[in-house]
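Hi L.,

As promised, UvrABC system protein C:
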Amino acid sequence: MNTVPETPADPRRRLKDLPVGPGVYRMLDAGGAVLYVGKAKNLKRRVSSYFGRTLTPRHARLVSLIADIEVTVTRTEGEALLLESQLIKSLQPRFNVLLRDDKSYPYIQLTTQDDYPRLAFYRGPRRTEGRLFGPYPSAWAVRETLQILQKLFPVRQCEDGFFRHRSRPCLQYQIKRCSAPCVGLVTPEQYAEDVARTAKFLDGRAGEVIDELIGAMETAATALEFERAAQYRDRIQALRRVLERQSVIGEDGDLDIIAAARETDVWCMQVFVVRRGRHLGNTAFFPKAPADMEESALLAGFLAQFYAVHEVPDTLILSTCPDEAEILRAALAERAGRAVRLQVEVRGERARWLEMARDNARFALQQRLGSQAGYARRLESLREALELADRPERMECFDISHTQGEHTVASCVVFDGEGARKSDYRRFNITGITPGDDYAALDQALTRRYKRVGQGEYPIPDLILIDGGRGQLAAVNDALQELGLHGLNLIGVSKGPDRRPGAERLWLLGREAPVILPSDSPAMHLIQQIRDEAHRFAITGHRQRRARARVTSALEDIPGLGPKRRQRLLKHFGGLRGLERAGVEDIAGVEGISRPLAQRIHAAFHRDQA
């Protein structure tokens, strides 16, 4: 690719110099902001057409704002389509179809690198240790599958820190959902069999698993091990029930079913995910689109952006034929590295699933419209209550969470004109302050956040909310002043009498008395929603940080104390708590523990008392 430079004063003067090959064009306004990104087979012909034809109202509005045009030449039209989708996602031009899809799909991870592999929820880069199964359309779908697997195959799902320091089986063993490899109640060979069957099930080879279990059941029955045979029988029945519920009749491959629904100017795209013949769940997206956009154009824009960041299945079943379908299909095939089919006219079971996707799209749209109307009323009520000139389009709220000053985490949540914008949420691990000093924690979090705002990485918010009263508000204002950010709308939200919900007090800079809104005020409901979300996000981060600290046991940092000796100690004393209460002589009395090692172990638990 090569970018054509130069910036003419009149965009029409660029037309004669445009190349005739494929590429991507960007329409810019007088301030340099990108208004629209498009692709073309012939850049010269396509861009020139904007200035010499009868235009729709939307295109006429676009052309009236164009001050400059930039183009990037590509080798093929498919390459132009992929580049267009990447630019739309990063630049968010207001005249394009905009897909707010901020998260990657989650997976199930099998940690095959461990001696006793575990199953876990995973979201992140595909290049990671172990095996990944999925993707699943939502975190809920992953967790439901993990619950099902726990009932079918006794493979552990506990964290490594919990697993390494067990001295007796946990509750999961008692209810027959784990075989307790942590304390040696299953042989490595038996555990490996369960892991292999789990992987086959997740690979869509459940038929093989059933055949293996039937064989094991018959072998156990022949050996007169009737209790073991009954266990296999129960597992086979449970597996068949799961398959009946999840299977898509007549399917054994990977496909996505995508349907659109529209109400007024709001669109919903419903995506059903089928992998290896199993329905893994569905999710709804609400892309932004110009008012006069047709479903075929919207679908083309949605597919290009969605599959720029998500796995492309073998087949896409669509509610309508997208614009330039052949170019889109070729671009998706290039990205997937194999053939991709786009199907619109389908029959039988596929037609039933497509209609189900349409129904779900319409239902999700109705729910969205109802919640949007209520959210718009809350925004307007907030503007009136705080006497703002305009409705706030971006609000950021901060909260602090810690346990007696330890593992302090600050959260920043972001709400815009449509609701929570989770892609812009951030957490800050707070260090280097006096434990429990919330003022210093807020100062550090806001300084780190708004340094980046000052550098242009994030837009300046219309409203900043702080969980706290006048003191916290003053600390925040001082931090912003030091960064050179003046005139921002700051609100402190403190608890009311008896910490009763609905009696919160709002503190504004320059006002001695707080603003107290009625408990049934829509503005108060919105403030509570934002504040509660900041609190949830902060406390979740704090718990994760605290859990990570606890997972790293004091025993693991002691030289000369390997896994077998740790296990022996924990069994002898009944766990970490019993070991912590033991003296040096008691610890040295355990087989394999010398007196110098016992002294190091004792010191590790009593550093604070030294």
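The radius of gyration is 30 Å.

Thanks again for sending the construct details.

K.
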